[in-house]
From TrEMBL:
Signal peptide: none annotated. Residues 778-858 form the Aminomethyltransferase C-terminal domain. This is Dimethylglycine dehydrogenase, mitochondrial-like. Belongs to the GcvT family. InterPro entries: FAD-dep_OxRdtase, FAD/NAD-bd_sf, FAO_M, GcvT/YgfZ/DmdA, GcvT/YgfZ_C, GcvT_C, GCVT_N, TrmE/GcvT-like. Residues 57-420 form the FAD dependent oxidoreductase domain. Pfam families: DAO (PF01266), FAO_M (PF16350), GCV_T (PF01571), GCV_T_C (PF08669). GO terms for molecular function: dimethylglycine dehydrogenase activity. The lineage of its organism: Eukaryota, Metazoa, Chordata, Cephalochordata, Leptocardii. Gene3D superfamilies: Aminomethyltransferase beta-barrel domains (2.40.30.110), D-Amino Acid Oxidase, subunit A, domain 2 (3.30.9.10), FAD/NAD(P)-binding domain (3.50.50.60), Probable tRNA modification gtpase trme, domain 1 (3.30.1360.120). One of its GO terms (cellular component) is mitochondrion. Residues 481-758 form the GCVT N-terminal domain. SUPFAM superfamilies: Aminomethyltransferase beta-barrel domain, FAD-linked reductases, C-terminal domain, FAD/NAD(P)-binding domain, Folate-binding domain. Residues 423-476 form the FAD dependent oxidoreductase central domain.
Length: 861
């Protein structure tokens, strides 16, 4: 390469919100005790009267709670109050290793990390409080070919983001970290500007800044009770009195579950133990003039960062070795637990320390001067719970909990929540953190514990595309044909607690999942299922759909206000979208009108409570007289699609299923094989098809009737992978991919669903009018991508290049079996949207030519 790794690191410092500090500023993080000179908050008992009124009460004085208090107060929110039961940093913050990184495999989380770095710099500058930041960079190590593939996979998803990231040869790795034994290192993944920060000093800076902007921070003030008033505001009880708050935020760390229980909530959180060791001085470290980069040895599952003249080494044990605080899961956190640690167990992490000694031989001669085993909070998928929480009758209750990486998330999540709290909508898409993704209806404590153990143990494993994790499955959310489909070879996917077939392995196929970043054992079976739907007919279990009934005198006016499309006539269905006030696509649903004031709404499995919360919030704010019933768990859904689907149904009903008798996007009540069905003529495959809604207990009977009637027509089963391929060939948009709050419906090509001239006003109308006046800067296009025989295919979030510059990103991708081409949907600048334009899609280290198409590859007459 033209320049050394060190030279390249120096060249990007201007791109980052923070530059590296010189070696002289190194200071201890573990058990940090700051002087009164530098830290202007105290843990003294409450010395002033508790406020009676507040706009927002934040419960928890760790790095997340204080970060939110700072961001809210700085943004101009008046009457922000933070309550801490003991002293700031108590819980998990005070003993954290303080790692900071721009890296995250989650696309949206990259922005959170980027924003956090900016907040760190801002709060230090504004308060004068040194936060102890060091930015020597991070190197992730690959020592297997599969990990090399993962690094290239992560690179293809990074190019359209702000922070620089690049690959290193083993020689470059050694140049940047000379203490490493690189015999087994195949590649490094480098994030310049990464490093670590002092969690104690950062928390103090947040608290100082919050007070500077008008917030009140009360220590030694524990919350003892909570109750919601009729108007949705809250009484928050403490040992020093009661505060009346318009909204509350539970940011209580590993106490968040207990705080939730004060108002009847069972939050999906458990406490796990994380252990690290601190070495004494290491001569090779002491001799250096610059700080060593942080190392993450992913195969051996540990991190190692410099701490003064030694190192901190922290492992993430595999599931069978990690330790959960089991009695806390069932009995709760002991009331007096604050700045305590657990008893260390070095035997539990001995193999990880041995691996660190192999990678960093100088460690073998170092003393372990300190070992730390402290509590951290975990959710079932390792991601935080961020946003307004929904439960029956609950209002104005927010979560900033389960933040496993609290330090690096604190600033970005503080800004994100601040925008949402003050503006009523999120600033960008972070649906993977939605606190309602784990519904109390199926997510019990056993599931949470099993899943958290698995997630912690998988902390450094390779993140494979389409991987499924088995812990805690199945839940209570299985359809009546779950076992039948398993017996027929279904490979199940997990969707909001539900089990749903991804694809079917038949005789001669390799069952299970063969991990790969390329086409693997599911590829040909999925093609077979696509051919089934295209030539005959297939049945798919769609029971995981979110399903709601909205009725009452104000039902029509409510939905007319929420949706950008016109409402359907009785007996008809429309595809409709809810927008944010800024014009982002908040949700896509089908709206079926069952009666003049009675509607049936259907959404995807991953957005059930996400969408319902939005609707109910506007019912509350607007005072609409409606009744909303969530019938998701009451109704089963089977989809049937393909040219012979009409023939199959005709054998089970005397109803008129002809083109005129049962039009596209219409709804009828049918009896199919003795099962009462609400049939909607629609299919996400783009083929002739129906969605058949019925009582959940009737699913098996309906399925058997369909299969029996369809035998002569070659009816079979298909899964979500085939449906995804078919929808891409038709150019159908997907929520969470082409449609998010980051995209407006005009650039997403949803013009036919936008009714700007309908009599009713709707949320987002003014934003769309402004967009129409100003014009768009990008549009969604369909690409055909030239790939190798075994892929990889695009799957979404790949970087798009044109003439050596990053110009956009993909949103979805798959192989189109009918088109016989690799496909992707992508956002590109307007000047690149002309059919025939050639761009490049980055796939596993190669920029593959991709051609903009006139429209969908397959168009139905």
């Amino acid at each position: 390469m033209a320049h050394s790794a060190a030279a390249r690191c120096a060249g990007v410092s201007r791109l980052l919100p923070w530059q590296c500090r010189p070696r002289a500023h190194l200071s201890t993080t573990a058990f940090h005790l700051s002087s009164e000179k530098n830290n202007r908050t105290t843990s003294e008992p409450l010395s002033r009267r508790l406020k009676d009124e507040a706009n927002t009460v934040i419960i928890g004085g760790g790095v997340v709670g204080t970060g939110l208090a700072y961001c809210l107060a700085k943004a101009g929110q008046k009457d922000v109050v933070l309550l801490e039961k003991t002293e700031l940093t108590a819980g998990s913050t005070w003993h954290a290793a303080g790692l900071t990184t721009y890296y995250n495999p989650g696309i949206n989380m990259k922005k959170v990390h980027w924003e956090s770095f900016k907040v760190f710099k801002e709060v230090e500058r504004e308060t004068g409080q040194d936060v102890g930041f060091h930015g020597p960079g991070t190197i992730r190590l690959a020592s297997t070919p599969e990990r090399v593939d993962e690094f290239r996979y992560q690179m293809q998803r990074q190019g359209w983001h702000d922070a620089p990231q690049w690959l290193l040869t083993p020689e470059e790795v050694h140049e940047m970290h000379p203490l490493l034994n690189i015999d087994k290192v195949l590649m490094g993944l480098h994030n310049p500007g990464d490093g670590h920060i002092d969690p104690y000093s950062l928390t103090q800076a947040y608290a100082i800044g919050a007070r500077m902007y008008g917030a009140d921070v009360y220590q030694q003030t524990g919350v003892t009770g909570m109750s919601m008033r009729r108007d949705g505001s809250w009484n928050v009880d403490t040992q020093h009195g009661t505060i009346h708050a318009q909204k509350v935020v539970n940011a209580a760390g590993f106490w968040a579950h207990e705080i939730g229980q004060l108002c009847g909530l069972e939050l999906p959180l458990v406490t796990v133990q994380h252990m690290y060791v601190v070495t004494g001085p290491i001569p090779e470290v002491k001799a250096r003039k610059t700080e060593l980069p942080v190392i993450r040895d992913l195969e051996a599952s540990y991190y190692a960062r410099q701490e003064r003249d030694g190192l901190i080494i922290g492992p993430y044990e595999r599931a069978e070795l990690m330790k959960m605080q089991n009695h806390w899961v069932s009995d709760g956190v002991p009331p007096g637990f604050g700045k305590e640690l657990f008893e260390s167990d070095l035997d539990r992490i001995s193999e990880y320390l041995e691996a660190a000694m192999d990678m960093i031989p100088a460690v073998r001669n170092a003393d372990i001067t300190r070992d730390v085993c402290g509590p951290i909070t975990c959710t079932p998928n390792h991601l935080p719970l961020i946003g307004p929480y929904m439960a029956p009758g609950l209002r104005n209750y927010w979560l900033a909990a389960g933040v496993f990486g609290g330090v690096i998330h604190s600033g970005g999540l503080g800004k994100y929540l601040t925008h949402w709290i003050m503006n009523g909508e999120p600033p960008y898409d972070l649906t993977e953190l939605d606190p309602n993704r784990f519904s109390e209806s199926w997510c019990n404590r056993n599931f949470v514990a099993a899943r958290c153990r698995e997630s912690f143990g998988f902390n450094n494993i390779i993140i494979w595309p389409k991987d499924e994790r088995p812990a805690g499955r199945p839940t209570t959310r299985v359809s009546g044909i779950y076992q039948t489909l398993l017996d027929k070879g279904a490979e199940m996917g997990f969707h909001s607690g539900w089990e749903q077939p991804n694809w079917f392995a038949k005789e001669g196929d390799t069952p299970g999942y063969r991990p790969s970043f390329r086409r693997t054992n599911w590829f040909h079976p999925v093609g077979r299922e696509c051919e089934l739907v295209l030539s005959r007919a297939g049945v798919i279990d769609l029971t995981p759909f979110g399903k709601f009934e909205v009725s009452g005198p104000d039902a029509a006016s409510l939905l007319d206000y929420l949706f950008v499309n016109e409402l359907p006539q009785v007996g008809r269905t429309r595809i409709s979208h809810m927008l944010t006030t800024s014009g982002g696509v908040y949700a896509e649903m089908t709206v079926t009108r069952l009666g003049q004031d009675h509607f049936f709404l259907v959404t995807g499995s991953g957005s059930e409570l996400h969408d319902l919360r939005w609707i109910e919030n506007h019912v509350w704010k607007g005072g609409y007289d409606v009744t909303i019933a969530n019938v998701t768990d009451d109704m089963g859904v089977l989809g049937i699609a393909g040219p012979r689907s009409r023939d199959v149904l005709a054998k089970l009903t005397s109803g008129d299923l002809s083109e005129e008798g049962f039009k596209f996007l219409s709804c009828q009540q049918l009896s199919l094989g003795g099962v009462r069905v609400r049939a909607v003529r629609i299919s996400y495959t783009g083929e002739l098809g129906w969605e058949l809604y019925h009582a959940r207990e009737d699913t098996a009977r309906l399925y058997e009737a369909l299969m029996s009637a369809g035998q002569e027509f070659g009816l079979g089963d298909f899964g979500t992978y085939a449906m995804g391929s078919l929808r891409l060939e038709k150019g159908f948009r997907g929520w969470g991919a082409e449609m998010t709050v980051d995209n407006n419906p005009l650039e997403a090509g949803l013009d036919s669903f936008i009714k700007m001239n309908k009599p009713a006003d709707f949320i987002g109308k003014q934003a769309l009018q402004q967009l129409q006046q100003e014009g768009l800067t990008r549009k969604l296009v369909c690409l055909t991508v030239e790939v190798e025989e075994n892929g990889p295919d695009a799957e979404g979030n790949e970087t798009i290049w044109h003439q050596g510059k990053v110009v956009g990103f993909t949103t979805s991708g798959a192989y189109g079996y009918q088109a016989q081409k690799s496909l992707a949907l992508a956002y590109v600048p307007l000047h690149l949207t002309q059919p025939g334009t050639v761009v490049e899609v980055e796939l596993l280290g190669s920029r593959r030519p991709a051609t903009v198409q006139q429209g969908p590859l397959v168009q139905k007459p």
